Amino acid sequence: MGIYLRNVIGFFLQLFPCSLMLFLPFGEEAYRFRRKYIFTGIILGSAILALAFPALICYVLHVWPEIDSGAPANLYMVAAILLMLAAYVWLVQETLTKKFLAFFSVLFYAAVQYWLVNIISISVTSSFVYPPMSVYSLLDVLLYFATTALLCPVEFFVVLRPLGEFNREINPKTMKREFFMAIFSSAVCFVLMFYCNSLWRTTFGWTVAHVLCLLPVMLFLIIDQAVIYWLVFRESVRYKRDSDQRHAAEIQQQQYEKITKEIENARRMRHDLRHHYNFLNDMLEKGELDEMKKYLSQIIDATARRENEVYCKNMTINGLLQYYAGRARDENISCEIYARCGEIAIEPVDLTILFGNVIENAIRACQECAENQWITVRVGTVQDSLAIEISNACKRVHLNRKYQTENGFSPAEAFVSDRDNGGYGLRSIAHTAKKYGGSAEFRFNAGTETFTTRIRLNAQAEIV
Known about the structure:
By secondary structure, this protein is α+β, with helices and mostly antiparallel strands. It is built from eleven helices and five strands, in the order H-H-H-H-H-H-H-H-H-E-H-E-E-H-E-E. Strands 1-2-3-5-4 form a five-stranded mixed sheet. A hairpin with a 2-residue loop joins strand 2 and strand 3. Helix 5 packs parallel to helix 7. The longest helix has 79 residues. It is elongated, with a radius of gyration of 32 Å. The two termini are 52 Å apart.
């Protein structure tokens, strides 16, 4: 019974943390089923595989006693890994690039743990003899327990949590080089570790001297991986920041060009104004009052410039609303804006992300509505919060399977983009709102064919 329990616990400690960590870098919206069901399945699946492991080893060694217990144990472990990997690929609805990055980061964790257990075990006792039909000694079980308690928090905080932020913010097609650099380096480190381990076991045998020679190699590989992942995550943050700044600069440039164009139009109209006066004077002298009224009406319509309306006192928000109102009206979309907002402690880049994503989505949705095309924007401050509500015509949305029965406001993960390569607009909105201690929620009303976005930001809070 003691041998059976050691094998069960040892196998579970190797398999379960790695299986669980595969899913941690992804948000609720990436799972095929609810998180609690998936995590429960991981626990049950790992437990069943661990309970069956010693029974299978005992059966194989009973039928073929001449076989080393390590061979069937390794085959069973490989089969269990492949089974968990297949479940992981099916249950996580994300791009293969992101899934491979998480997989290889966890694979490297498993290699580091395996090396630590072997190095410490041989350093403690080089003459340890395994009991018959036992793959894990009592020392192995204790070491796997200790290394799991030590390495899991490090893996979570240093790799998995930054990887989760990376997955939510970055489109893998824009970061191919960085993704594959991390994946390739993890694979190389993993292969080197197990090659060295197998070489020393089969050729030289394990001694304390050999272990001391391998320690620098292991430390180099760990440091190398840490540097590579740090570079990848740093590059992703830099790319996201530069992308947001470029987007904000493009909007400012386009707004400047519109203003410049309007100034030129005003100069041209002033230049032509004398001719208008002369023409009106001639019609007045001839008594052509009806023609004169018609001509005046045409002049008034030509000089109306609603896109230069002042919506609020906040220069950034006012400029964004002017730009996007002009965009909507260029598409023949009715755009009503109600804004009362002064100066607030929110970065212009973040305001650009919010308004840009929401109104661009609204314009795209209106383009699919042949007859009913409209957008309504409401912006205001309530105490220390900035409140934004944007409604627009919308014929259809793609809902995540878990949210198809809900009719109220839902989080960003409830909606799935039908655009090529996926869409990141709603996630970016929610992330920016969370950055200012606020929230973002969305609702689609199929009866009225209306999509509504509500955003609240703490305008006085420090950025989190």
